[in-house]
Automatic annotation (TrEMBL):
<comment type="function">
    <text>Interacts with target proteins during translocation into the lumen of the endoplasmic reticulum. Protects unfolded target proteins against degradation and facilitate correct glycosylation.</text>
</comment>
<keyword id="KW-1133">Transmembrane helix</keyword>
<dbReference type="InterPro" id="IPR010580">
    <property type="entry name" value="ER_stress-assoc"/>
</dbReference>
<feature type="region of interest" description="Disordered">
    <location>
        <begin position="1"/>
        <end position="48"/>
    </location>
</feature>
<dbReference type="GO" id="GO:0005789">
    <property type="term" value="C:endoplasmic reticulum membrane"/>
</dbReference>
<keyword id="KW-0812">Transmembrane</keyword>
<feature type="transmembrane region" description="Helical">
    <location>
        <begin position="51"/>
        <end position="72"/>
    </location>
</feature>
<keyword id="KW-0472">Membrane</keyword>
<comment type="similarity">
    <text>Belongs to the RAMP4 family.</text>
</comment>
<keyword id="KW-0256">Endoplasmic reticulum</keyword>
<dbReference type="Pfam" id="PF06624">
    <property type="entry name" value="RAMP4"/>
</dbReference>
<feature type="compositionally biased region" description="Low complexity">
    <location>
        <begin position="35"/>
        <end position="48"/>
    </location>
</feature>
<protein>
    <recommendedName>
        <fullName>Stress-associated endoplasmic reticulum protein</fullName>
    </recommendedName>
</protein>
Amino acid sequence: MATASSPVMRARNAKYQANVTKRGHTKGASDKSHSSSSSTTKSKSSAVSPALAGFLVVLLCGGAIVEILRLFGAGAQTDGF
């Protein structure tokens, strides 16, 4: 059973229905094309600095190498020291 909507509800629906095409856009965004990347207007900076990325690579690879050496190299020596 469908009921008739009130005039207030119809006005609100009309207001927000007109806003459907504008959702997700900012004031500074151009409507030329959504497929073009925004990197042409401003460059993206990475979330991690190159020094930190290098440190993490050395840390992870170094830890893996140490574990491999410990597993195969020091297998015969189990003094506990």
